């Protein structure tokens, strides 16, 4: 199981022409993750962490409001990438099962 390192994430920021900062605006997060604005809002609306141990849905994104503008922390984007990378690997279909459909 491969986790996305801090260096790899910084390379993603470089590819998106963004500096390393504590938090990012919605458009910047969309650029980093390669998602649409609609997907960004869906991911932030789905976030729920009642016990403080992590989100119920791994495919959700924690954000906060700064005045009336939404922001996502650097560490949350990195955690989101790692959650979804490991989730996909743990829950991916067995390649042998996929042969049934050939």
In short, what is this structure?
The protein has 102 residues and is mainly alpha-helical. It has helices spanning 6-15, 26-33, 37-45, 74-91, 95-98; strands at residues 23-24, 64-66, 69-73.
What does this structure look like?
The protein has one domain (6-101). The chain is 48% helix and 10% strand. The mean pLDDT is 83. The chain has a three-stranded antiparallel beta sheet. By secondary structure, it is mainly alpha-helical.
Which helices and strands occur, and which strands form pairs?
Elements: H1 6-15, E1 23-24, H2 26-33, H3 37-45, E2 64-66, E3 69-73, H4 74-91, H5 95-98
Antiparallel strand pairs: 1-3, 2-3
């Amino acid at each position: 199981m491969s986790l996305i390192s801090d260096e790899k994430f910084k390379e993603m920021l470089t590819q998106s022409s963004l500096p390393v900062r504590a938090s990012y605006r919605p458009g910047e997060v969309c650029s980093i993750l390669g998602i649409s604005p609609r997907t960004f809002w869906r991911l932030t609306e789905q976030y729920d962490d009642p016990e403080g141990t992590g989100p119920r849905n791994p495919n959700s994104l924690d954000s906060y409001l700064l005045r009336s503008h939404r922001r996502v922390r650097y560490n949350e984007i990195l955690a989101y990438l790692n959650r979804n990378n490991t989730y996909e690997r743990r829950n991916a279909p067995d390649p042998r099962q996929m042969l049934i459909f050939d």
